[in-house]
Structure formats: C-alpha cells, structure tokens
C-alpha cells in the first residue's frame, strides 16, 4: 500500500488529530464520572500512541472492509454472517466467544422466542426510552426466529422451553460457539486472538487513500479499514474479558456514556435471619419488587437463598427492574438508601390466601400439639416453613397462644408476602449484563456513530440491555446484523 509507513508514523504521533470539539451530545451533562476501570482503560488508550513510538509497529498493507473490535457474541456473529477475507476480528482474549460458551448455565440460552417480532421492545431496557424505536427496528430486522433459521442453516438445531428460552439441542453452549466459529472460518473471516486494541484513529480525507478511513492499533500492529465495529461488551463478568475498554474508545470519538449499573445479578438483603435458609431453592414462586409501597413489577421464577440475600433466575430477572434512573447523580448507593426497595416472595402463587388460610386453620385444629413452626410442613419447603413462622411471629406476636384462625391468617399472609429489604447487588463481577452505555440517540438507525463516520456499535456497549432468558444475546445478534447490512448490504449473505 502506498505511503503506509508515512501514515503509520503520523498515526503513532497523534491518533486523534481530527478530534471533534463541537457537536457534543445534548446529554453530555448526564454522563457520570469515570470509574477506576474506565479511567485505566482511557489512560491506556491515550498512551497507545506513545507506546507505538517506543516500538516499531507492524503496519498491515491490507485494507479491510471491516474491522471488528471484540470477538464476543456480537463480533463472532458478525464474522459468521458477513465475514470474508476482508473482515478482521480482533479479540484480546485467548478465544473468541468465551463468554458466549458459558451462557444459560452452560446450556447455551441463545435467544428467547419472545424477543422481538410482535412483542416489539418488550423485555428490553434503556436509560433513555426515546431510543427504543431503534431497538424495535433492529429486532424486527433480525428476530429470534431469523436467528434460529440462521443457526439451522449452520447445522445447529435448537429447542425452546416453557419460558421461551431457546437452547441448542445438544444443551451445550459450546455448540453455538463452534457453529459460529466454523462458519466464520468457512467464509474466510480473519479472527486474531491475543490482540488488545489500544487506539482507534480517524484518517483525514487527504490520508484516506485506497479506501482506508480508520486505523486500529493493537500492541502488535496498526491495521487499516473502511469500517470499524466496536463490540467490546460492557463491564459485566470481567473474568470473561468485559472490562469497559470500549467506553474509552467511544468517549474519545465524542460520545457520552450513561451511568453504568450491573443487571442480571444477585441481590443483597438486609435480613441476616434469612441466612438460616442458605442453600434453599424454591421453584416457580411469585416475586415482586417494591419501591416503598409502589409495586414495580411482579413475575414468576426460582429463588436461591444465600448468605448475602437471594440468587436464582427470579432474582436475576428482578434486578433488571431496579429503578437506577432515579438515583441522584447516577449513584448506585442512592437507589438502595433508606430501605426503599423491597423484594416480596409469594411461596404459593397458585394458591389463594383464603384457600391457604382454610387449610392451615383446619390443620391447626386437628393437630393442636403441633408446633406452629411445623404447620407449613408439606405445603412449602420445611426450612422455609420454619422461617415463615418466625417472621410471622415477629409481626403478629406469639402465635402459639392464638386461635387457629389467627394463626392461619398470620402464616398465610407471610407465606404470600415474604418481604426482604434490598440493600444492593453483588456488582459487575457477578452480573451478566450492564445497564447503560453509548446512548442510542448518539447513533444512526444502523448503529453507526453520529460523530465518527464509518464507526459502528453492536451489543452490550450500547445503552440497551435485555431481560434474563436470552434477550441480551438476541440484542447482540440483531444490532450486529443491522450494522453488517449497512456495511455490506446483502453481499455479506451470498457466500
């Protein structure tokens, strides 16, 4: 390529010679202060050029049609659907799709039949709801049904369960990853692992020869491309490589980042007495989230009691509805202050309170010598029954001295509304997804940047997260598909 060396030297001196000072997003003031992880990632990005001056970087002669930063769900899917010899995926980890291979408890919950189609954006969340139109369009463009059809064409058979969750027939998450890797390889896409991107540079019109518009610098080389897709994920599950580095790139390109919060995560509760239930799992119970006395959401799911609070898919699903946007200054601590959030567990959602009272009253009269703590045996988990009885006594007084109807009413009401005060979450390291990111208002309909031409975003780095049960992965595929069609049209699907 003509004058590659000269171009590379200039890029190493200043990657952002064309830094945009004007046209800052209207929501700039809503951007939160950077976390330690983001500051570290930003500093690393800023010093990328200096690092390049201290060593001789290899300048690739080839100009790629698209460079994908991040080989997670969105990046690997992009390579499988649009990949060819002109597509390069740069993954800093040892393997592409590592987090994808751990989804659904290892079963590979690849999507949900209710994601998109006639359900629109149901099951999806965003800090700024006005951006949901783009979510709906992306899901309409590439729905869960489209995904299953695509996977079937790759030889991956799927099935759905009673909650709409879709899994590979093998019940192995690695089956999906293997299929995507195989198709990307067949199409000729280049996937380089162990390549940590340190900087992204925008070439001026004068420098943009032979179609090169963007440079991507790793610790090893400088790559040239017409387009770049940033699919680095969010901050959740750092052990799988999600460290928030993509946010630093977005900021340097002129974007704001909304406040970031962990979702699909375990909940911490104030009541230490619940530790007696540690290890107890209750299935398909009713769960409700309250902000003081206002009910936010009510759903069904499984709950696992832990020494810190609750886990299980029910807790994960509830965590998506925590009203973070109401936190003053974007502070996670404020939303949990003053005991405003509580979790209600209905141990018997299919039994009415009146029916339960009747059963318990009759049982109390029949077994007069039975301890109150044992009256719920045979109705709920024994250990849970004991704890419900203790909690009922804390509110209604000594039940052993009360009439059968009073005892039954106290136990039934507590079993149907077992309250716990939520004090926080286990944070990003234990979360499955990130709330917040690049505002959708700062992207075009194809998820290209409104500030940086030919730069696209896909997946969790955007301000969109989905409910538990395959919604987030569907968003990764749908947003990557939208970006890919903009870059390649239908050409990418012809191979």
Question: Could you give the distance between the termini?
Answer: 27 Å
Residue stretches low in confidence (pLDDT < 50, at least 5 long) are: 7-33, 40-55
- CATH homologous superfamily grouping of the largest domain: FAD/NAD(P)-binding domain
Proportion of beta-strand residues: 15-25%
Mean pLDDT: 86
Per the principal axes of the C-alpha atoms, what is the gross shape? elongated
Instruction: Look up the CATH topology of the largest domain.
Output: FAD/NAD(P)-binding domain
SSE class: alpha+beta
Number of helices: 14
Instruction: Give the C-alpha Rg.
Output: 26 Å
> Helicity range of the residues?
25-40%
CATH class of the largest domain: Alpha Beta
Description:
31% of the residues lie in helices and 22% in strands. With 495 residues, it is an alpha+beta fold. The strands form five sheets. Strands 1, 2, 7, 8, 9, 10 and 19 form a seven-stranded mixed beta sheet that branches. A six-stranded antiparallel beta barrel has the order 12-15-14-13-16-17. It has a three-stranded antiparallel beta sheet with strand order 3-6-5. The two termini are 27 Å apart.
Q: Short summary of the structure?
A:
This protein is an alpha+beta fold.
Give the arrangement of secondary structure elements.
Layout: H1 4-13, H2 36-46, H3 48-54, E1 58-69, H4 73-82, E2 87-91, E3 111-112, E4 124-125, H5 132-141, H6 144-153, E5 158-160, E6 165-168, H7 173-187, E7 190-193, E8 197-202, E9 214-218, E10 221-230, H8 245-252, E11 261-263, E12 267-269, E13 281-291, E14 294-305, E15 309-311, H9 312-319, H10 332-335, E16 341-346, H11 353-366, H12 382-396, H13 404-416, E17 418-425, E18 433-435, E19 455-457, E20 465-466, H14 471-488
Parallel strand pairs: 1-2, 1-10, 2-7, 10-19
Antiparallel strand pairs: 3-6, 4-20, 5-6, 8-9, 9-10, 11-18, 12-15, 12-17, 13-14, 13-16, 14-15, 16-17
Helix pairs in contact: 1-3, 2-8, 4-7, 4-14, 5-14, 11-13, 12-13
């Amino acid at each position: 390529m003509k004058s590659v060396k000269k171009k590379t030297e200039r890029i190493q001196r200043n990657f952002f010679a064309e830094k945009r000072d004007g046209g800052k997003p209207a929501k700039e003031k809503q951007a939160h202060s950077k976390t330690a992880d983001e500051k570290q990632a930003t500093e690393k990005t800023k010093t990328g050029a200096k690092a390049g001056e201290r060593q001789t970087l290899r300048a690739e002669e080839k100009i790629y049609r698209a460079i994908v930063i991040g080989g997670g769900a969105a990046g690997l899917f992009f390579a499988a659907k649009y990949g060819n010899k002109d597509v390069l995926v740069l993954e800093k980890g040892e393997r592409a799709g590592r987090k994808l291979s751990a989804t659904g408890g290892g079963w590979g919950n690849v999507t949900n039949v209710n994601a998109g189609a006639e359900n629109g954006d149901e099951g999806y969340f965003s800090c700024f709801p006005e951006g949901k139109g783009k979510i709906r369009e992306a899901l309409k463009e590439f729905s869960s049904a489209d995904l299953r059809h695509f996977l079937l064409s790759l030889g991956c058979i799927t099935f759905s369960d009673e909650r709409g969750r879709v899994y590979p027939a093998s019940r192995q998450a690695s089956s999906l990853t293997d299929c995507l890797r195989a198709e990307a390889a067949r199409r000729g896409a280049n996937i380089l692992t162990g390549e940590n991107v340190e900087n992204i540079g925008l070439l001026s019109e004068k420098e943009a020869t032979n179609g090169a518009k963007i440079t991507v610098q790793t610790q090893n080389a400088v790559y040239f491309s017409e387009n770049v897709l940033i699919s680095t994920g969010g901050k959740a599950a750092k052990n799988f490589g999600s460290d928030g580095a993509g946010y630093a790139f977005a900021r340097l390109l002129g974007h704001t980042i909304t406040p970031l919060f962990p979702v699909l995560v375990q909940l911490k509760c104030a009541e230490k007495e619940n530790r007696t239930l540690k290890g107890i799992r209750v299935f398909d119970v009713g769960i409700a989230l309250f902000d003081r006395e206002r009910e936010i959401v009510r759903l069904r799911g499984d709950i696992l009691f832990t020494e810190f609070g609750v886990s299980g898919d029910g807790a994960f699903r509830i965590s998506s509805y925590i009203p973070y946007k109401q936190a003053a200054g974007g502070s996670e601590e404020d939303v949990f202050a003053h005991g405003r959030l509580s979790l209600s567990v209905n141990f018997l959602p299919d039994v009415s309170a009146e029916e339960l009272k009747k059963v318990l009253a009759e049982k109390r009269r029949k077994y007069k010598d039975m301890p109150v703590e044992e009256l719920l045996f045979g109705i709920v988990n024994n250990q849970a029954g004991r704890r419900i009885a203790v909690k009922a006594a804390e509110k209604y007084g000594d039940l052993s001295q009360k009439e059968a109807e009073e005892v039954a009413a106290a136990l039934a009401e507590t079993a149907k509304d077992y309250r716990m005060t939520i004090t926080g979450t286990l944070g990003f390291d234990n979360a499955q997804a990130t709330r917040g990111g690049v505002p959708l208002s700062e992207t075009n309909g194809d998820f290209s940047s409104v500030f940086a031409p030919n730069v696209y975003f896909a997946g969790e780095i955007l301000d969109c997260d989905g409910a538990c049960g395959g919604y987030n992965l569907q968003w990764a595929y749908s947003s990557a598909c939208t970006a890919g069609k903009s870059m390649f049209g239908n050409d990418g699907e012809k191979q």
